[in-house]
Amino acid sequence: MFRRVPGTKDILSGETDYWQKIEETSRNIFSLYNYKEIRTPLIEDATLFNRSLGEFSEVIQKQMFLIHHGHDVYALRPEGTASIARAYIENNLDKKEGFLKLYYIGPMFRLERPQKGRLRQFHHIGCEAIGSAGPDIDIEVISLASAMLQAYQVYGYKIKINSLGCAKDKIELAAILKRRLSGKTNNLCDECRKRFENNILRILDCKNESCRTLVNALHIGDSHLCNDCKLHFNAVKNGLDILGINYEVVGHLVRGLDYYTRTVFEISHNDLGSQDALCAGGRYDKLVSELGGPDVGAIGFAFGVERLLLVANIQVPKDTEKKLTYVITLGEEARPYGLKLLKELRKTGIPADTDYEGRSLKGAMRVAGDLKARYVVIIGENELKKKTVMLKDMVSGKQNEVSEEKVVGELASLLR
Question: Which superfamily, per CATH, for 15-166+226-311?
Answer without folding.
Answer: Bira Bifunctional Protein; Domain 2 (3.30.930.10)
